[in-house]
């Protein structure tokens, strides 16, 4: 009989342990507790994603501002380039006009005049101080005005030439 009582006690202890562990397992595997744990985990992930998204948005806004500054600089450079291209086109146009050969118009039919004798006339000798060489061609006038330290704009105004023509003459005749 002692054996039966020992077995019954053992079965009772095992039953109590089984019920205790079963309660713990049910408590751990309970749907509401699982949902709560999952909800807490999802909330944590959403918070992390929001922080990451805000940080990324801030970085993107900073990059957009940098790009806007660069675009404004690029626009300024494009305008300067367009001005330079226009200036070069105008300069090329002036050069092409300067290259054109001026063909003198044929003289109108004039009645023939008897040849008159050619007189070889020489002016009276003058001193160098009295003689002031006056530039005759545009080139000579431009170079003379440059010697007076005038800028190309002033030279163009004084001679009646365009600034491009003056700059061309000055560039073809550098100072020695």
Overall 3D form: rod-shaped
Number of domains: 2
Q: What characterizes the major β-sheet?
A: none
Strand runs, count = 0
Structural class, by secondary structure, is: mainly alpha
Q: Which value, in Å, is the CA radius of gyration?
A: 52 Å
Beta percentage is: under 5%
Distance between the ends: 138 Å
Oligomer: single chain
Please trace the helix and strand order, writing H or E for each element.
HHHHH
Helicity range? over 70%
Quick structural overview:
By secondary structure, the protein is mainly α. Helices cover 70% and strands 0% of the residues. Helix 3 (138-147) packs across helix 4 and helix 4 packs across helix 5.
Write the layout of secondary structure elements.
Layout: H1 2-28, H2 31-99, H3 138-147, H4 152-159, H5 163-172
Notes on the structure:
The protein has 176 residues and is an all-alpha fold. The protein folds into 2 domains: 91 residues; 35 residues. Helices cover 70% and strands 0% of the residues. It contains 5 helices and no strands. It is rod-shaped. The chain starts with a helix and ends with a helix. The model has no long low-confidence stretch (mean pLDDT 82).
Which key phrases capture this entry?
mainly alpha; 70% helix; 0% strand; 176 residues
């Amino acid at each position: 009989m002692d054996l039966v009582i020992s077995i019954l006690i053992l079965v009772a202890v095992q039953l109590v342990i089984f019920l205790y562990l079963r309660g713990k397992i049910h408590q751990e595997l309970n749907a509401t507790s699982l949902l709560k744990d999952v909800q807490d985990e999802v909330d944590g992930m959403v918070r992390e994603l929001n922080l990451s998204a805000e940080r990324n948005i801030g970085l993107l806004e900073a990059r957009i501002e940098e790009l806007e500054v660069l675009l404004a600089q690029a626009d300024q450079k494009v305008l300067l380039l367009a001005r330079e291209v226009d200036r070069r086109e105008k300069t090329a146009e002036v050069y092409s006009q300067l290259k054109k050969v001026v063909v003198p118009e044929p003289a109108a039919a004039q009645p023939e005049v008897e040849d008159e004798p050619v007189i070889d006339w020489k002016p009276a000798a003058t001193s160098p101080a009295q003689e002031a060489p006056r530039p005759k061609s545009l080139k000579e006038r431009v170079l003379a005005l440059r010697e007076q330290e005038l800028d190309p704009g002033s030279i163009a105004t004084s001679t009646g030439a365009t600034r491009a023509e003056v700059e061309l003459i000055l560039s073809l005749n550098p100072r020695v």
